[in-house]
Amino acid sequence: MRFDIVTIFPEFFGALDVSLLGKARQAGVIEVGLHDLRDFTHDRHRTVDDTPYGGGAGMVMKPEPWGEALDSVVREDSVIVVPSPAGHPFTQREARELSTREHLVFACGRYEGIDQRVIDHYADRNEVREISLGDYVLNGGEVAAMAIIEAVGRLVPGVVGNPASLTEESHEDGLLEYPSYTKPALWRERAVPAVLLSGHHGAVAQWRHEQQLERTRRVRPDLLSPDLLSTDGSGEST
Ligand SMILES: Nc1cc(-c2cccs2)n[nH]1
Fold it and tell me: Would you say the CB of residue 147 lies under 6 angstroms from ligand 1?
């Protein structure tokens, strides 16, 4: 999989050189291209924004630099991801879906967004996804793009050493994850739940599923649907 990122702050993505994604890049499992939007301007001040038609506060990003920048990276099979507070909510399901695609292009807008004609132009040619991380406003798309790239990149085969660790995570099965414990068995007079020390794998699986249900009911009742309310660890309705 290849990620191409268009931004006025390419240095922001230095974090993609380290940790898991950095190793995956070195191994050639994923590729990342960084592109400075200002390299696609032609005036002395490398202008990327201007005042909004119709008035109003703030600045809008000009279409010309975006058109030249995206034309330089977009392929026929590219999915163009535009982080935006006006986008649809990003989910683990969408992360899994995007992890199966060959080429993601991130258009990181600043200010009051990108001239709408850019989105409309590429939506005629490519799949364009305006994605929100949540109902709050960031200064730009870079933080959102980094989060999406990490959520998607870690699901690409070969990035995470032990793929089994990807299956027992919050949201993977529609539920929040169960609480985890490690040594020591007693810490500040707090013991580990006895079932986890029992060696009884069936009982452990049952307890963990019950913990997932309890935590999801308490913290995220919105995630629960009737079929997820089964009480055994199998995921089958009871
Ligand atoms: N969820 C979310 C995305 C954003 C922005 C993307 C680009 C500029 S601001 N804010 N909040």
Answer: no
